[in-house]
Amino acid sequence: MMKKQLIMEKALELFAKQGIESTSVQQITEHCGMSKGAFYLSFKSKDELIVALIDQFMIQITSDIDSVVRNTSKCDNLLYEFYYTTYHSFHKNADFVRMLIKEQMRSFSKNLLSKMHYYDQLMNQSIIFMIERIYGEEVKLVQYDLMYCIKGLMKTYSELLLFNSVPLDLHLLAQSLAEKTDLLAKHSTIPFLSKELFQVFRQPMTESVSKEKLIVLVEPLLEELEESIEKESLRLLKEQLNEPTLSRAIVKGLLENIRNHPQCKWIVLVLQEYFKF
């Protein structure tokens, strides 16, 4: 296991046990069996570690959802798969989410707010893509209203599950929300959000990743992957970052080659944003 990942996993154990505020860098390093110096080679501070944990959490959820939205073959089952994947991800990380909300994070840094806005925009893109796949021109007038309705359902039911001890049936929940969303899509006729108004509300994606940062993210992933089509595709994508020579069709094909690999789903999300797909 890489040192940085080890620190993150051990820190999560301590945060869950005694809270973020009550956990010191000294306690984290002792739990990891390393020196403070080794910690500060990976993270400048505990706050930077917390941001990295949130980053990891959001990357996992957004990449899982984007993968489902783009790869589910049958559109008549797509809403169910979307909601099931969303709540399955939240359920797996429920303790972490509760801990963050309970601690209130002391304050929200500009960097953290920027990251959350970035992931929110990625989520918007995935939901709009899903709506267009399922309904096409049928809901064009109300697709942005429908997107916010879907996000509202996601948020409300997430809070219900996080803060109430209720039996959790993910299958039933996904079915129920898929039905509600379908009813809204087929019977909504009065739009509030036009495309133009949505663009006014929509802020630029300020967390765009530079070519240099992307290469830094890709390199350790290349070292971890065994020789395969996915590894060769990722290697070619890295070369494309350094020196663009491939056509858009080939780049799109390379992204599709790695999209379903468990270790690559998150990097696909970032690469497709960089390459404007």
TrEMBL record:
SUPFAM superfamilies linked: Homeodomain-like
Q: Name one Pfam family in it.
A: TetR_N
Keyword GTP-binding set for record:
no
DNA-binding region residue numbers: 24-43
Q: Where is the HTH tetR-type domain?
A: 1-61
Q: Which UniProt keywords apply?
A: DNA-binding, Repressor
Q: Which domain of life is it from?
A: Bacteria
Please name the PANTHER family in this protein's record. Answer: ACREF/ENVCD OPERON REPRESSOR-RELATED, TRANSCRIPTIONAL REGULATOR, TETR FAMILY
What name has this protein been given in UniProt?
TetR/AcrR family transcriptional regulator
